[in-house]
Amino acid sequence: MEHLTSLVRRCVEDYDMIQEGDRIAVGISGGKDSLALLCSLASLRRYYPKRFTLAAITIGIGFDDMDFSGVRELCRRLDVDYIYVESDIRHVVFDVKQEKNPCSLCVKMRKGLLNDTLIANGITKVAFGHHMDDAVETYLMSLIYEGRISCFRPVTFMDRSGVTQIRPMLYADEAMTASVARRYSLPVVKNTCPMDGVSKRQDVKELIEKLSLEQKDFKSKVFRAIQRFPMPGWEVVK
Questions:
Q1: What's the CATH number where 125 sits?
Q2: DSSP letter at 143?
Q3: Rounded mean pLDDT of 100-121?
Q4: Which own/partner contact pairs does 138-143 have at CB distance under 8 Å and 24+ positions apart?
Q5: Pairing between strand 125-127 and 81-86?
Q6: Is residue 189 one of the residues assigned to a domain?
Q7: What is the rounded CA–CA span in Å between residue 57 and residue 82?
Q8: Any domain includes 237
């Protein structure tokens, strides 16, 4: 946890993600990445020179057997407010719309509901658990499937909602978040969506794994290239 928190702090400082008095909500999907981020920010909160407070928000999609009671208990132990919002996204996407590409509509609906929840609770900054692997995968997906160079940004201000999105875990990789989740027995919630693991992102993830067998630092090289280029919004601030 100390190692992860040190990487989170460096990323936060490099991209000036946290200001004095911020109230930051962590978007909790129930996966290992968002839970690891929540724990590392809770740890950072104890000694970071710029004081900030934390909340956690889960947008329930409506799938059966996804129990977030363990997440609620973790938030209680971390002294973090937990906001759970149930929705009918699953019903709309799969039953009403019967989408052939359900992930796109699901993401759009979840983001809209998340923004509404943030605004209703007076929160203007949200942290997502994207890590280095996510950045590399997104970059390669844009290159391979869209023929363009693109990736999400470490910090993004959303004009319409007035919400700032931050991604403090970009200097950590997925192996580290998995290790933290195991070591601290984080209450990971299994995603019961039938589309979980069936996507272009999964195909790119498998491609990266193959390339990494030949060149072990493949992911870190691509990530450094994104920073050095630099991609828009990826210029180190500090």
A1: 3.40.50.620
A2: I
A3: 88
A4: 139/222, 139/226, 139/231, 140/204, 140/207, 140/208, 140/222, 141/200, 141/201, 141/204
A5: unpaired
A6: yes
A7: 6
A8: no
The answer to whether 58 and 85 have CB atoms below 8 angstroms apart is yes
Cα 131 to its chain centre, rounded Å, is: 7
pLDDT band at 186 (very low <50, low <70, confident <90, very high): very high
- Cα(168)–Cα(37) distance, rounded to whole angstroms? 8
What contacts 32, CB < 8 A, 6 or more positions away? 177, 178, 180, 181, 186, 188
| Global confidence as pTM | 0.92
Q: Which two tokens stand for residue 8?
A: 């989170």
Q: Is 129 contained in some domain?
A: yes
C-alpha 13/C-alpha 7 separation (Å) is 10
Decide if 235 is inside a domain: no
Query: How far is Cα 105 from Cα 111, in angstroms, rounded to an integer?
Result: 10
Mean pLDDT for the chain overall = 92
In tens, the pLDDT along 188-204 reads: 998 887 777 667 888 99
Total structural domains within the chain: 1
- For 179, the token pair is 């290790």
Q: Which residues make Cβ contacts (< 8 Å) with residue 168, sequence separation at least 6?
A: 8, 11, 12, 17, 37, 40, 41, 127
Full domain range(s) for residue 38: 2-228
Q: How far apart are CA 59 and CA 57, in angstroms?
A: 7
Give 117-135 as a 3 state SS string: HHHHCCCCEEECCCCHHHH
